[in-house]
Amino acid sequence: MSDLHWQKSTYSPDASNCVYVAAPAPDAIHLRESDEPQIILTTTRDPLSALIRTLKTNPSRRRA
């Protein structure tokens, strides 16, 4: 997976706590965190969209 084009999330302004996203295919979205880039989570558009919507509408569900 090293040939993926990773982009830093716009929701990760802090250089030490960044989330990176790569979408190698329409049905796969990869996520990784800057502290442990070897750990990659894979999901699809609908579950990721639901998570983002939930976090935007329910700030109390965000991890501090």
TrEMBL record:
Pfam families xrefs: DUF397
Domain DUF397 intervals: 4-56
Domain of life of the source: Bacteria
InterPro entries registered for this protein in UniProt: DUF397 (IPR007278)
Name of the protein described by the UniProt record: DUF397 domain-containing protein
Naturally occurring in which organism (per UniProt): Streptomyces dengpaensis
